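G.,

No rush on this.
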Amino acid sequence: MIKKYNSTLAALLTVCSLSVTSAFAQNFNNIEWTVDRSNTPSQDRDGSGRTPSTRNATNNQNEVYTFEISTTSTSSGLQRQEFQFERREDFHRFEGEFKIDSDQPNFDRVSLAQTHDDQTGSEGVFSIYQVRKDGNDYVFGVQGDTTEANNGYSTFDTVEIELDRWYRLETRTYSANRDDSFEIARLYEGNTLIWTETIEGGGEGEQYKKVGAYRLTNGTGRVIVDWADLTFYTGEEN
C-alpha cells in the first residue's frame, strides 16, 4: 500500500505554470514514441559484485540481467553494479521490469534506476529510484537532485513492494535547459499502476539512464537485482 500521498493534481498544476512545452500539462499525451534500439549500454561498476554482459541489452527483450552487490562493507568506497545507457535529449522514455531476490534480504537504500544529466556531482543526479527498508517492509520511492530543496526522498510518495516479485518501471522524460527538465515515473505490478511521481528542475540538455544496483549513502547490505525487458524510446510532439 502507499505509505503517503502527495496530490498528483497539485503536481500537474505546478507543471502548467512552467514556461516549457504544453506536453507536460498533458502528461506527454501528445508525444509520439518510437522504439530506440540504438541506445546501447556500457558497464559502470565499482566495488564487489557482478555486472552482466551488455550484449543485446536493448535488442533481446527476453533476457534477464542480474546485478549483484556482494559485500556488506561500508569502507570500500562505491558499491555500484550498473548499466549506463547513452545520452538523449528532448523527449525520451524508458521501460523495464525488475525483481529483487530474497536470497539477500538484509539491505537498505539501494538504487535500482537513475536519470543523470551533464552536471557533475550531486547536481548531476536528476532522479534516483530506490528501495529502502521500513521495519520489516520494503518501500519503493525516489529522490531528485540533492541541491533542490523540494526533491528530497521524504517529499515524494512511497509504495510497499515485495521481494521475488516483478515490477515494471516506466519513466517519461523531457531533457531541456537547466531548471526546465521534467520526468513522470510510474510503477506497475502486472497491469496495475501502484505508484506515480513527478520530478522537475535541475537538468541540462542531455540526460542518460542507469539501471542495476547502486548502494546509496548510508546504505547497507548485499543485494541481487534482476532487470528484464529493457526498452527505450525517443519522442516527438504531434
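When you get to it, here's the other one too:
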Amino acid sequence: MLQDAKTIRYYQRLSDGLAEQWNRGYRTDELRLYVEGYLAAMRHSDALEPFLVHRLEEEITRFLHDSSNFALPETQSDVF
C-alpha cells in the first residue's frame, strides 16, 4: 500500500495513463513497455527515492495484472 502523497499522485497518473492507452487500443505488451519507460524516467530523474519507485513498481504491476481494471463496460442493447 502506498502511503507517500507524491508516490500516490504518480500512481494515479500512471494508472490513468494505462487506462487511457488501453482505451486507445494498446494491449498488455505495449502497456508493460509504457510502465517500464515511465519507471525508468522516474529513476533517472530522481523524482522519488529509489525504495518509493520500487513500491510504485510493485503497485502498478499489481494494477496491470488485475483484469478488472481493463474490462470493457457492457452496454445494454435494446431488445424488443
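The helical segments are 5-23, 28-45, 50-65. The chain has a mean pLDDT of 91.

Enjoy the weekend,
O.
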